[in-house]
């Protein structure tokens, strides 16, 4: 039955290969598409196609050509494209309006606010003077965000009215919209969640986000995270309730929902709720290693119209896992030290440096998540042991710049 099904993946990069491999292992025929002709997933799929995955009409045409039974993406911010292809081809998926509402930051926060889901207070602005006025109304510090971008691109903290003009110009560079979003600045413990929606909501994955906000201020750069979460049982229960209410309010009745939440002054508040799987290896690697939960396999089965095995979503064990990113100092790379030493540290699961981290390359100042240059993933008997190993490894990797 599975062998008779064809699934089309939009996106075939290194991280997407983790989903492609599951589909291949399950016997599905895999069509992979990516805008990068050298994307590794194009080589492992039954059919690899170099094309623009944001071109909805072309994706529909390819889907028809190969008589696909399902379409999905993994860790790519294109849920509306996937939804539109699924709707046009009468395949399993969510309504494109739901995808749009959960992707557009303004529509999302308006929906959450209207449905009494705790989240940040917000305003919008089209001009600098308006931004100054709205920021003063909310009270400094505030956060400026583009409505239509991800990966923390264009997100910036604004501490005072004298910072508004430069911050506004920064955010506007990352959006095609006329307006920017202005939110109150929230502080507290931050957690990432992952939920699968199939007849009911299964919120099954929780990871503590590691933000060293002062280090990169005014930009928001997440320096990895760790599992299992340090939240109390009561806090986890409150997170699940709030996340599930947000999913229902947004109209997400099928598929996946990726949440970012913050416990602000004792209240669980939604920072983000997206209708796609999480990136950064959270969904595909860290959750399975830490808990035995497999989120991707049920989603792949659901996408081709098959009932998922819900035992995939049950925790089998608990293991510590932590990720920390590598942030070289800006400048020209003249030497890279410590990689061989790091490989000898107990519990190091994976070390990765981007392809452009090499002698002679130039490191730009870090302004968003896309500019991180590598990572270390470590495992341990506990959250604390994994964190200690990951941070020790990162500290030993010395990328010298001038």
Keywords:
4-stranded parallel β-sheet, D-amino Acid Aminotransferase, Chain A, domain 1, 8-stranded antiparallel β-sheet, 402 residues, globular, Dna Ligase, domain 1, Rossmann fold, alpha+beta, single chain, 4 domains
Can you give a write-up of this model?
The chain folds into four domains: 90 residues, Rossmann fold (3-Layer(aba) Sandwich), CATH 3.40.50.20; 135 residues, D-amino Acid Aminotransferase, Chain A, domain 1 (2-Layer Sandwich); 64 residues, ATP-grasp fold, A domain (Dna Ligase, domain 1); 80 residues, D-amino Acid Aminotransferase, Chain A, domain 1. The protein is 32% helix and 28% strand. The model has no long low-confidence stretch (mean pLDDT 96). The strands form four sheets. An eight-stranded antiparallel β-sheet has the order 13-12-9-10-11-14-18-16. A four-stranded parallel β-sheet has the order 3-2-1-4. Strands 5-8-6-7 form a four-stranded antiparallel β-sheet, sandwiched between helices. A hairpin with a 1-residue loop joins strand 9 and strand 10. Helix 3 packs across helix 4, helix 5 packs across helix 6 and helix 7 crosses helix 8. The chain is an alpha+beta fold and 402 residues long.
